[in-house]
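Field: sequence (string)
Field: structure_tokens (string)

Example rows 1 and 2, in order.
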Amino acid sequence: MEYRRFGDTVVARIDRGEEILSKLKKIALAENISLAEISALGAVGDFTVGVYHTAQKEYCSNRFTGDWEIVSLTGSITQMKGEYYAHIHMSAGGADGAVVGGHLNAAVVSATCEMFIHVINGRVERLYDEKTGLNLFSFVS
């Protein structure tokens, strides 16, 4: 992985064999990022995405391997109890053109991942919501 910061934007290259979420966290902690918008594209060979079942209040995960192009990777960095918290979704297309996606649990780069982290001057916390079972935005002053 290699990255550079240009004002309020971090541009990163995540390399073959590296796991995307762990590298994102490493950058965020090193750059002291508490609020940001994430976008990326690239290629992955092994990834797990999930779908949240609202009635059961739990995620169901699906793992995919092979040659996949990241069609969209988008999300946010916020804080929960003052600690790093990322919420990322990813869609990827396979050789047959079919696209799968959901809440990103893990993704290993097969070729490259080009990521943009737009840092926002502010802070948003997350609080657990009993009704949904999710960690929702909580706006702090």
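Row 2 begins here:
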Amino acid sequence: MFYCIGITEKGVMSHNEDALLVNREVVDSGITEQNIQAPFIAAVSDGVSGERSGEVASKMCLEMLRDLRYEKNIDLEGALLDIHRKMADYSRSDPETHNMQATVCGVAIDEEHNIMTFNVGDSRLYRFRQGKLRQISRDQSLVQLLYEEGTITMEERKTHVHRHIIFPVLGNVKSEPKVDFIPLDGMEYGDILLLCTDGLSDSVSPLDIEAVLEYPEPLKDRLDRLVKNSLEKGCKDNITIIAIVYSEDDE
């Protein structure tokens, strides 16, 4: 049994270009809280800033992912690229949604509890284990590439003028995205898998996220605290977070 809780918040923005998926439910406003048996998928998606109809793109992406009957032998890469192509075709057919795009970052857990993570763009997956937070996903962004090349430092990455430039994501009509996959070992007691859009990761440092997750209070209260911290630190974006924990209790 897995306990999942997700929050998506428009913050100071006039509308929400984020959305989240937990099992069979897509949410673009508010909270979802579920106890789920595997197999299932949980994911966050962020409509790309500067492109049209970001809120349509993120929700459409996750609705198509929701309709995938995930199991061990599913071609997840093929399914995600098919979603990309359908989004691109849709945007070509409607001037109101031309070149709509969205990031996606998620966790797919099959019927044998094998965990596969996937990412396109700069939404993130962290694992909190034994009091330490580790980023699992790799940002598909220009500043990440510059950092890995040694051109800029970790601190410069946070304020770089091109920090919002990301590589092709789902729905891009000019280029097909690259889907990054990372398998995870099984979840240990006390582990938290944390998915988030860049509204959180751009505003709250990993050390601050770590401190909140370590706090002894209900998980929902900890996610509320992360959203509040983002807003207090001047977040100018939507904020979406999913937390996943494993319980051996199947009832």
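free_text_note (row 2): The first strand starts at residue 2 and ends at 9.
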